[in-house]
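Supplementary Note 3. Input sequence used for the single-chain structure prediction.
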Amino acid sequence: MSEDLTKLVLESVPNQKSANELLGKLFDITKPEAIYSQPVTAGDVTVITASEYTAALGVGYGGGGGTSTEVEEEETNAGYGGGGGGGGGTVGRPVAAIIIESGSARVEPIMDVTKVAIAFITALGAIGLALSRMRKFADTGKLD
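The predicted structure, written as discrete structure tokens, is reproduced below.
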């Protein structure tokens, strides 16, 4: 193995360790204490929030190679190398409140107004586009 390739392999080992640590941290959010909050009690009412979490991870790695040629008893090496990288992220938001009161429990959903508004605007846009295409087809007989 050439010195450059050996160096490349040795340098990638700490990066693999970091990637494994990142992956472990991303899966930490699946613990119950990350999904359900600590109970909060006021009088005879106890509230526990429940959340949803989304995790994403992307990694990549590139290799290397090279050529070796002999010119008049002198060896020349030409090569190249690559590296790796990655990233990830998590997003969490509350989705429900579990309310325990007088010996009974109920679940109250938490409305995400932003998501509802985005879905409404997207639906209106799709309807507008469809109506526009239908009018164009009715006028010209073509779907261009």
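The first helix runs from residue 3 to 27. The chain has a mean pLDDT of 79.
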